[in-house]
């Protein structure tokens, strides 16, 4: 029942949240919550109602990398799959996100195919693991 | 100081210092150190005097420059408002585009589905022209759906350009506070800012900046009609 997966999309740009949400709808996912930075996302994540986190990096309040570290540091949600979708494209940044435990990394602007591939790959490895 | 100059400058006094030291002549040694010290003080004073002259010059030039007053009082704050307006316009345009996509995509989806269902109900041995038409309709509707999806993803530009504009906006804010500070220090009255000139083209009207803008086409028509055109 892949379509029952509950997503949380975190981005400070309302347009980008809407684009990703629409895209997930197109892929058949219907349960999608939104937050505009890490601070507002964290309580939603801690409530345990999220199966998959898609987050931007550069956001006021709490940036995506910090949110990722918070997730990995909380025993209750540390295994949550996290896909980072961001304009931050420096090698060191990607390495930093990987070291912080990100499951996938998509650089903006992205294509439909790239985003779908990364989501599918993460879900497949979750199912296998 | 270049090494040769440094060495020739201090060679004499070093020899004398060495000599006084070797002879255990403390008074002569102290005199020589005093000489060195006062020489240092003179060059320090000269340097300070030069610096304060430069500073005074810079400040007086600054006071004369009403261009800076104009920048601090109006143009920089205007630039910030213009960027805010661009951010808002692009965001609104993207939301409007997404609205239309969200309304249109289900229509294309329904059209493709209905064409398929209808084709299936038709007898395979007849209606070949209608069946082929329905096939085309289904293909076109699927294509429209896909294209709408591409248009949607392309709207992601607003996030990228927006992030860049936010950066430039923060920079402008910093320049603004530095200019304000400078204007305060130098005592340039910000009211000395030169007034905006004449009817130069100024581009699209920006709320908070453009005065006397007629933004509604009806109001433009009324104005033109009122002018007898």
What order do the helices and strands come in, and which of them pair?
The complex is a heterodimer of chains A (129) and B (229).
Chain A: E1 6-10, H1 14-26, E2 31-35, H2 38-46, E3 52-55, H3 64-73, E4 82-86, H4 91-99, E5 104-107, H5 112-128
Helix pairs in contact in A: 2-3
Chain B: H1 3-23, H2 26-64, H3 66-121, H4 128-154, H5 157-186, H6 217-226
Helix pairs in contact in B: 1-2, 3-4, 3-5
Care to count the β-strands of chain B?
0
**How many β-strand runs of chain A?**
5
Number of helices of chain A: 5
Residues in helix, % of chain B: over 70%
Largest sheet of chain A: 5 strands, parallel
Alpha carbon gyration radius of chain B:
39 Å
Largest interface: A-B, 17 and 19 residues
What general outline of chain B do the C-alpha atoms trace? Answer: elongated
Per DSSP, what share of the residues of chain A sits in E-state strands of 2 or more residues?
Answer: 15-25%
Count of domains of chain A: 1
What name is given to the CATH topology of chain A? Rossmann fold
- What's the mean pLDDT score of chain A? 94
Percent of sequence in beta strands of chain B: under 5%
Widest sheet of chain A: strand order? 2-1-3-4-5
Class by helix and strand content of chain A?
alpha/beta
The shape of chain A, in one word, is globular
The chain-level structural class of chain B is: mainly alpha
Distance between the termini of chain A: 17 Å
CATH architecture of chain A: 3-Layer(aba) Sandwich
């Amino acid at each position: 029942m892949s379509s029952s997966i509950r997503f949380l999309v975190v981005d400070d740009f309302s347009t980008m949240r809407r684009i990703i949400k629409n895209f997930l709808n197109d892929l058949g996912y219907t349960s999608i919550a939104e937050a505009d930075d890490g601070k507002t996302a964290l309580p939603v994540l801690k409530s345990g109602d999220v199966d998959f986190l898609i987050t931007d990096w550069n956001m006021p309040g709490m940036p995506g990398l910090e949110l990722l570290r918070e997730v990995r540091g909380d025993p209750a949600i540390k295994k949550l799959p996290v896909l980072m979708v961001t304009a931050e494209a420096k090698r060191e940044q990607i390495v930093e996100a990987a070291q912080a435990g990100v499951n996938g990394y998509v650089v903006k602007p992205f294509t439909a195919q790239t985003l779908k591939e990364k989501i599918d790959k993460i879900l497949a490895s979750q199912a296998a693991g | 100081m270049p090494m040769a100059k440094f060495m020739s400058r201090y060679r004499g006094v070093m020899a004398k210092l060495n000599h006084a030291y070797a002879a255990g002549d403390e008074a002569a040694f102290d005199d020589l150190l005093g000489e060195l010290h006062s020489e240092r003080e003179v060059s320090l004073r000269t340097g300070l005097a030069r610096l304060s002259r430069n500073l005074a010059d810079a400040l007086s030039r600054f006071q004369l420059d009403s261009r800076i007053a104009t920048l601090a009082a109006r143009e920089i704050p205007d630039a910030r408002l213009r960027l805010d307006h661009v951010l808002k316009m692009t965001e609104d345009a993207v939301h409007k585009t997404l609205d239309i996509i969200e309304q249109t995509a289900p229509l294309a989806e329904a059209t493709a589905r209905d064409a398929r269902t209808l084709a299936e109900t038709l007898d395979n041995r007849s209606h070949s022209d209608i069946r082929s038409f329905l096939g085309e309709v289904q293909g076109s509707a699927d294509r429209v759906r896909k294209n709408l999806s591409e248009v949607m993803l392309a709207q992601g530009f607003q996030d990228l350009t927006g992030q860049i504009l936010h950066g430039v906006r923060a920079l402008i804010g910093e320049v603004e506070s530095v200019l304000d500070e400078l204007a305060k220090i130098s005592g340039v009255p910000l009211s000395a800012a030169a007034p905006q000139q004449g009817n130069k083209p100024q581009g699209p009207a920006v709320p908070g900046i453009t005065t006397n803008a007629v933004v509604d086409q009806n109001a433009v028509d009324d104005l033109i009609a009122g002018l007898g055109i």
